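TICKET: design request
STATUS: open
ATTACHED STRUCTURE:
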């Protein structure tokens, strides 16, 4: 009976020691200055992979408790912190940024044309290299707005969108949203201007913007008399480049 009690006490002590000594493995979230949050998963690193045995805690923790000191990307590239393994040999290279840093769509507000959405996913499918843009063209995080004129000189998107590496800046509609524009005409039926119809006929945005119309709101109304003198739609619809505003009225003015 006494030996049974001793065995029970020993079992409790062993169980207690095991429970107290057990490690609670948590995901660790690092807040980076300009590249979002990075989550380190102990579970992913400790689980067995098809081509390697599971890592041991001592692979990163020298004494089982203390973690390596924090390091920036420059330090990691010299083999510190994550860079000790993530060198392309022990594990994927640091250049595979999106394996740790989550990317998202970036919406850029353009007053005249509406928001332009930059897709990291589309660009990464083609180029697969964050270093193409960061940090030579763009800093990670927020960047100042760049005008189309500056892009035309090779800044920002204009560094690649030249017609050689990627479509030229003149293909405005590939980034800037456009829609049909409806004009209310009191006595002759409403008129709908279709951007798509004009673009499908191989006209470019530059044929109208900014010489005939400014992009966005703020263009003054133009009468038919003024169009007949070459203003607004009359710049092209003169019977030479396109049908004449003086005769083919029903093409634009639809009866209700």
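STATUS: resolved
RESOLUTION: sequence designed for all positions
ATTACHED SEQUENCE:
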């Amino acid at each position: 009976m006494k030996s049974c009690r001793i065995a029970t006490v020993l079992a409790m002590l062993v169980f207690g020691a095991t429970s107290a000594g057990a490690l609670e493995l948590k995901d660790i979230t690092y807040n980076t200055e300009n590249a979002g949050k990075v989550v380190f998963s102990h579970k992913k690193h400790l689980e067995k992979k098809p081509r390697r045995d599971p890592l041991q805690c001592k692979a990163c923790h020298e004494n089982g408790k203390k973690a390596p000191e924090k390091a920036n990307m420059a330090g990691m590239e010299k083999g510190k912190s994550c860079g000790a393994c993530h060198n392309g040999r022990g594990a994927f290279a640091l250049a595979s940024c999106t394996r740790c840093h989550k990317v998202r769509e970036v919406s850029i507000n353009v007053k005249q044309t509406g928001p332009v959405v930059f897709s990291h996913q589309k660009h990464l499918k083609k180029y697969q290299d964050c270093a193409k843009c960061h940090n030579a063209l763009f800093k990670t995080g927020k960047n100042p707005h760049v005008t189309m004129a500056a892009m035309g000189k090779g800044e920002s998107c204009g560094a690649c969108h030249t017609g050689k590496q990627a479509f030229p800046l003149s293909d405005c509609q590939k980034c800037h949203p456009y829609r049909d524009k409806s004009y209310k005409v009191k006595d002759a039926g409403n008129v709908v201007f279709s951007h798509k119809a004009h673009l499908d006929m191989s006209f470019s945005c530059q044929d109208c913007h900014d010489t005939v119309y400014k992009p966005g709101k703020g263009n003054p109304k133009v009468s038919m008399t003024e169009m007949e003198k070459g203003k607004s739609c009359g710049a092209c619809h003169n019977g030479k480049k396109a049908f004449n505003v003086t005769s083919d009225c029903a093409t634009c003015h639809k009866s209700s």
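CLOSING REMARK: Helices lie at 2-21, 42-46, 73-77, 120-127, 148-151, 195-200, 224-228. The radius of gyration is 32 Å.
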